[in-house]
Protein: TetR family transcriptional regulator
Amino acid sequence: MARPQAPRGHGRRRVIDAAVELFGEHGVTGTSLQMIADHLGVTKAAVYYQFHAKEDIVLAVLEEALVDLRAFVTAAEAEPSPDEAAMVALRGLVDLMIGHRQVVAALMRDPEVERIMATHDDLNSLVGRLTGLLLGPEPDLRRRIAVSVVGAGVAQAGIDPLLADVDDETLRAELLELGPSMLPRH
Structure:
């Protein structure tokens, strides 16, 4: 007799959670759908029932972060001045990284994730808008370098093993003090 099946989507959260854990250990490139299935104690077909490809799992992992990114970029774009827009964007970026530390750690610098992200038009548009907010109008060389350093620093701080013992609120406070001090005003 066949086992009853849960409706499609019922196990999606379990697959996503298992994938994040395995991506953190092995990277996306080093994690197979079979590994995810084995981790969950299900068949590979059960994982395929929820997601048709590993790329779909990566995009599902990113979806919550994309919702947050879209919200703070839109809020920053509504600010009346470039400096205020940059600060709202920076706060949003810090909050995004803090709120999604495990996902950032699991996905950052993985070549397969970079390939997937490069083909994701919505994400690329949001990142372009965020970068524009941080750069402001007519950025000089100093501003471009500062935005690069701050952006990379915020992301690195969230995954740095040297900072693993720092609680989220302390890390957020420090990043929000350091970040603006590095960005020259317009």
About this structure: The two ends are 70 Å apart (CA to CA). Residues 62-182 form a domain with the Tetracycline Repressor; domain 2 fold (CATH 1.10.357). The chain has two domains: 12-52, 62-182.
